[in-house]
What we know:
The chain is an all-beta fold and 89 residues long. Helix content is 0%, strand content 56%. The protein has a 6-stranded antiparallel beta sheet with strand order 2-1-10-9-6-7, with no helix packed on it.
Amino acid sequence: xxxxxxxxxxxxxxxxxxxxxxxxxxxxxxxxxxxxxxxxxxxxxxxxxxxxxxxxxxxxxxxxxxxxxxxxxxxxxxxxxxxxxxxxx
Length: 89
């Protein structure tokens, strides 16, 4: 069975409602100085890790720090001031 595609939906700010399709093996989000994350698609799921400034990056209100975390549907990521909700398509 193949892994379904996934997306992130922006749930605050000027771009609220916008959906970002995670179609690459690895997607980077954020800006240098304000936090950067990487979401990787692997055979057993989608995983998020911090590339820069982990203190302002959270998943479900918990700091991500230097952890690698498997994402589940409806997880909420915060990068700087942008809230993103993860879901499988």
